[in-house]
Every structure is written in C-alpha cells, then in structure tokens.
C-alpha cells in the first residue's frame, strides 16, 4: 500500500448540525509511539456556531502505543477514555470509522 | 495577470469515502491539495461560510492584519467572535493562525497560501473575489467591454 491517504470534508447531519471529518494515514519513521511506522488518525468534529461554545471532537480513532487501534469512546465529554478496537490494520479501522460517521451523520 | 484560486468542491460524503476506498484498493496514495477544500453540499457551504467569514477572508487578503485583534478592528466586530470565526476558517483550511511570538502572544491571520479568489465548483460555478488584484482584473475586464 502506498501512503499517504489524506482527505477531509465539511458536511451536515439530517438536523443541520455541521461537521468536519478528517482521514489521515501517513508513513513515519518507526518509534515508540508508532512502532509499525504508520500513523493513522480519523476524526469527526462538530462545529459549534454559537460563539460561547467550543467545537467538539465527537469521534476519534487513532493507533498510537500502547493501545494500538482505539476509539476515544466517551467523546465529547471525556478525551482520556479509550476502547481498544478489535482490528489489525488501518484499512479495517477506516471501514469502522466510515460506518460510525454514517451513523452519526444520519 | 494570473489569479491563484482556492477551489471548493461539492461532493457527497459517500462519494468521497468511495474515492478513498478506491485509492486503497488500487494501492494509490491520496493527497489533498492545500488549494482544494471539500463540502458535501452548497447548503453546508452557506451554513458554515456566512458573510462574516467571507469578510474575514477579504480583510486578510487586502489588509494583512498583524493580529486577530487588528482584524476585528478592521471589521468592527468583537475580537472573541472574530477569533472563533478565524478558528473555523483555519480548521477548514482557508487560513493559518500564526503565533507572532510577541509579548502579547497574538495570532496573525494569514491566508493558507496567497490565493486571490475562491472558486466554487458547483452547478452555479462562480468565484468570490478576495484580493485587490482580483478586483482590479474584473474592473479592467468590465472597462474593456
């Protein structure tokens, strides 16, 4: 597989809330955080147009050590909670991300 | 006189996901150019890129403000509101907020690159003029008719 894979877009759900999704898979020198030399980050961010509110990351999947592929499963309230995903490759994690995005944006 | 464009494309999320999956199956890399930004529909564009955000882009292109504070002054808007709009424009990819490293740690808003127009690739296919250069070009073209 040749990398990188990078795409992003702005979109909205059926009730008109605005989002941005980002897909990034990049090669990098293998290190402690990314022992396989691949950094994958999949994010879905909800824009808050109200000036008093902050934008919210509502879906975040990445693969840094020591967790491997994991989902931050209590977003947007809790950023430090993680659930390990039962996937081996970034391709499978990406399919999972796309399905979750479709659920949220439905 | 050549104008540089930021291109806005309208593609449904399913179609973009399809393009990504196709690249993966063909084992081809997929890089998003800094001169292209995707929206799923013109409606999303209109909801996110209201007049105030477009005015911010015009002001940055024409006046090169040294800080968000100065930008807010130019626009006659509260700094906090201007900063929030700038954060959205940065997230989407229209601008950069550069840490100016002065005593006030202010952020300098800059276009993501020096583009003159935003070209919307919709059925309407129109452009938003940002820079003085783009305005002059249109004025010259109108004068020639």
Task: Report strand order across the widest sheet of chain A.
Answer: 1-2-3-4-5-6
Morphology of chain A: globular
Radius of gyration of chain A: 14 Å
Q: Structural class per helix/strand content of chain A?
A: alpha+beta
Number of strands of chain B: 6
Number of helices of chain A: 1
As laid out across the biggest beta sheet of chain B, the strand order is: 2-1-5-6
List the secondary-structure elements of chain A in sequence, H or E. EEEEEEH
Query: Averaging pLDDT over every residue of chain A, what do you get?
Result: 93
Uncertain residue segments of chain B:
none
Task: Please tell me about this protein's structure.
- The complex is a heterodimer of chains A (106) and B (145).
- Chain A is an alpha+beta fold and 106 residues long.
- Chain A has one helix at residues 90-105; strands at 5-12, 18-27, 38-46, 56-62, 70-71, 83-84.
- In chain B, helix 4 (68-75) crosses helix 5.
- Chain B is α/β, with parallel strands linked by helices and 145 residues long.
- Chain B has helices spanning 13-25, 42-48, 51-63, 68-75, 79-92, 132-144, and strands at 5-10, 36-39, 95-99, 107-111, 117-121, 126-129.
- The model of chain B has no long low-confidence stretch (mean pLDDT 93).
- Classes of the chains: A alpha+beta (106), B alpha/beta (145).
- Chain A binds chain B through residues 1-12, 16, 18, 20-21, 23, 45, 47, 49, 51, 55, 91, 94, 98, 101-102, 105, and chain B through 11, 13-14, 16-17, 19-20, 23-24, 27-32, 37-41, 43-45, 47-48, 80-81, 84, 87-88, 91-93.
Question: In summary, what is this structure?
Answer:
The complex is a heterodimer of chains A (106) and B (145). Helix content of chain A is 15%, strand content 36%. Chain A has 106 residues and is of the alpha+beta class.
